[in-house]
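Dear colleague,

Thank you for sharing your sequence with our group. We've completed the structure prediction you requested, and as agreed, I am returning the results in plain text so they can be pasted directly into your records. Please verify that the sequence below matches your submission; if there's any discrepancy, let me know and we will rerun it promptly.
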Amino acid sequence: MARRATSGAGGTGATGVKAARRPEIRLPALEPFGGGELAPDGDYDGLEFRELDFVGQDGGGARFMDCALTGCALDETKLGHARFLDSVLTGLRGVGTDLAESTFRDVELIDARLGGTQLHGAVLERVVIRGGKIDYLNLRTAKLKDVVFESCVLVEPDFGGARLERVEFVDCALRQADLTGAVLKDVDLRGAAEVDIARGVDRLAGSTISPAQLVDLAAVLAGELGIRVEG
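Please find the predicted structure tokens below.
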């Protein structure tokens, strides 16, 4: 039998939902990036990228380890299959950034302003996404484990076919989300400021919601079940 979404108002452990493990990042002394364009399959270790313009560049397959990217422009930047490890990304901005099938492990993404970011098939593990706004985020078939969305706004995120395990939404607005075909396990939505599911509400099995959120979702749940509600 499929598990049902659980309604609860207690602490994280009160209902048995497992909390996400957050990254513990301690960056070493960083060297400033020497300039120039990103290189496909480039290897970047212990570098600081500050206020740089990477618009339209190709860094596909690159590895960023113990790096800080701050205030960089990533419009149409190609970073498919890139790896971001033990890094802090702050104030990134861009439209149409390609991060398909990339890997984020032990990463903080802070105050991002992104639109149409392609993260389909990506792997996110021990990641905190804090602040900022991300429109039309494509996470189809991605794998998210120990991920926290905190104090950010997600507009029409697409989790179609994705797997979410130990994922938390804390003071986060989730608007017009698509959960079609997604698989959820220990997903905690209770702390979200707004939960709006456009498609795939039937995939909420494996999540925990609050009583107030259950009331807000009642109409879409009734529609999914074919229940007609009349006064």
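Summary note from our side: The chain is about 5% helix and 40% strand.

Kind regards,
the structure core
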